[in-house]
Amino acid sequence: MSDLFVQEIKEILQKARSKAYKATSNAMVEAYWLMGQRIVVEEQDGNAKATYGKAILKNLSKALQAELGDGFSYANLRNFRQFYLTYPNFEKCYTLCSKLSWSHNRLIMRVDNEQARNYYLEESAKSGWSVRELERQINTATFERLLSTNQPVIATKTDDTEKYNFIKDPYVFEFLKIPQNTNTSESDLEQLLIDNLQKFLLELGKGFAFVGRQYRISTETSHFYIDLVFYNYLLKCFVLFDLKITKLKHQDIGQMDMYVRMFDDLKKQETDNPTIGIILCADKEETVVKYSVLNEHQQLFASKYLSYLPTEEELKNEVEYIRQLRDKEE
Q: Are 310 and 318 in contact (CB under 8 A)?
């Protein structure tokens, strides 16, 4: 009996188990929606909460747990009810939610913004985010950070409300575990990002492939070194990153502008789209952005990075501040 034969049998079993798990997961998502509907529509006369004194959820939980086990606690029944209230249209719910596990859906349904929920549903399914990865995306307000840039989108949907941007502002590098208020050199930051490349790629978003660090680009007389170079196969273009541990300066913008022009001239292939340059800086101010080529350049951007995970309130304030700056620029 050959090793190849054994491997083929294993693959058949793994595929079957995967299909069975997916079918079971889809069935349970549907069941939880139907349970939530029954609780709201049938038992509560369509109200979001039961009439005072009926204690419907508590009594139902006792009855179900006595026969079916701990999976039907009072808290879980509240989740089923919330699931239905979040997605009252079954067809839309099944189309979006059935692609993910109940654990994924339980996280996403707590997101207030409907556009953000749709984003997390679609991206979780397409990108294969684990529950932990999804939780990070929600906790770091990925959807809001993408919208804060107001830049052209990658994935254009038929519905204008489902257009998602490409560049985030700010980026969050809490996975680097850099203590706050410590001095980190640009070379140290670069090394940490390379050491945590998988997590860095997740933070960057879809379609990124790592090309190189300190990437050399040469003219007839000089050599230049770009901190980090990626290729995005969705945009079909190179993406250059320049790391700055200080506040953005006009010299930084001029340098990246030169890198982008050189890369387009010397490295870009005919089938590639124009190169994108992103300056990752510790801070930036409105004046530098407003009166520089950043204000009009289609391929040149500057984004802040945070080396720690801020609180939800801090992150919302940061995103709102960036939006206000961009509105003033316009």
A: yes
Positions of E strands within the chain: 153-155, 164-165, 171-172, 208-218, 223-232, 237-247, 276-283, 300-306
Residue 204: other Cβ atoms inside 10 A: 19
- Is 166 a domain residue? no
Structure tokens at 294: 């950043």
Q: Tell if the pTM clears 0.85, that is, is over it.
A: no
In a domain, residue 148? The reply is no
Query: Locate tokens 């200080």: which residue?
Result: 246
| Average pLDDT of the segment spanning 34-49 | 76
The pLDDT mean for the chain works out to 83
Distance CA 93, CA 116 (A): 15
> Where a domain ends, among 88, 108, 128?
108
In the block, tokens 């090394």 appear at 191
pLDDT at 86 > cutoff 50: yes
Q: Residue 277: beta bridge partners?
A: 240, 300
Contact status, residue 156 vs residue 163, Cβ threshold 8 Å: yes
The closest alpha carbon to 262, from 293, 225, 312, 230, belongs to 225
Q: At CB < 8 A and 24+ separation, what contacts does 259-266 make?
A: 259/217, 259/224, 259/226, 260/299, 260/300, 262/217, 262/219, 262/224, 263/217, 263/226, 263/238, 266/217, 266/218, 266/219
Q: What percent of the chain has pLDDT over 90?
A: 38
Give the number of domains in the chain: 2
Taking the C-alpha atoms of residue 322 and residue 170, their distance in angstroms, rounded to an integer, is 8
Q: Identify the pLDDT of residue 47.
A: 65
pLDDT at 54: 56
The backbone torsions φ and ψ at residue 301, rounded to the nearest 5 degrees and listed phi first, read -140, 155
Grade residue 330 by pLDDT with cuts at 50, 70 and 90.
low
* Residue-number span of the structural domain to which 311 is assigned: 171-329
In this model, does residue 46 exceed pLDDT 70?
A: no
